[in-house]
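Input/output pair, single chain:
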Amino acid sequence: MFSQLDPSAPPSKYWLMLESRAIGEFGLCCAVAPLLLQFAPSGDGHPVLVLPGFIASDLSTKPLRMFLRNRGYQAHGWSLGTNLGPREGVEDNMRKRLESLAERYGQKVSVIGWSLGGIFARELARQAPELVRSVITLGSPFAGEPHANHGWKCYEKLSGRKADDWPNRDLMKQPPPVPATAIYTRTDGVVNWQGCLEQMSATSENIEVESSHCGLAHHPAVMFAIADRLAQAEGQWRPFDHESGLRRFVYRDPNRGDRFVNA
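Output:
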C-alpha cells in the first residue's frame, strides 16, 4: 500500500522496523567488496573527514573509511567519541579537527557526514569554505522539520538542547558554499527523507539509493557514489551520472515527480 508521506512527520513504524535491513546490507557490502574495489574510481589522495551519526562513533564509519583509504584517500574519523549532538565544545573541536587535517596535508578536506554528522558537515563548510573541498551527506535531515524523525526525544535528552534550537535554521536549508551531494533513501525508517534533500544549484545535487538509514555508510551503492563524487578534480565538479550503463538499474532519478513511499 502506498501513501504520501507528510513532510512534517517521522517515517512510518513500518519502515522503522525494517531498519534491521542494515545487517543484511553490511553482509551485501562484504559480498560485493571485490567488485566494488575493482570498479569504484580511485582518487587523488586528498584528505577526507568522516563524521558519525547521532549516538554513533568512529567505529560506525570504519568500513567506509577503510574503503576510502583503499581508493587512495587520507580518510579520518572525527576523534570526538560518541556523537551526542552539539554539546559544549563539540563544534569548536570539529573545526579544530578540520583545520588540523587541512594543515597536515596542505589541501582542502572533503567532509562526509552521516545523519546528524551531515548537518555538522554542511555547517563546517559554511563556516570555513576555504578549508572544505566538498560535502557529502548520508540521510541528513538538514532541511526537515525538527520533529520529523524518530530520534528527536533522545536528541533533546542527550544533547541538552531542544530539537528546534539550532541557529539559522533557514540558512541550514540553503546549499553550502562548496560542492554538495545529498545521498538519501525514500525507505529511511529514522528520518523523513524529504528533509534530506539539497536545493538544486550549480554545485549541489541529490542521489537516491535503496537502503535503510542505518545502512547508508556501508551500502555498496552509497560507497560507489561517494567514490565517484570524491574522484572529481577540484574545481571541476559535475552532477552525478545516474543513467549510464548499469547505473540506471541502481540509482533512481531523484527528480522524478512522485513523492510516495510504501507505508
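The domain at 2-262 is CATH 3.40.50.1820 (Rossmann fold). The two ends are 6 Å apart (CA to CA).
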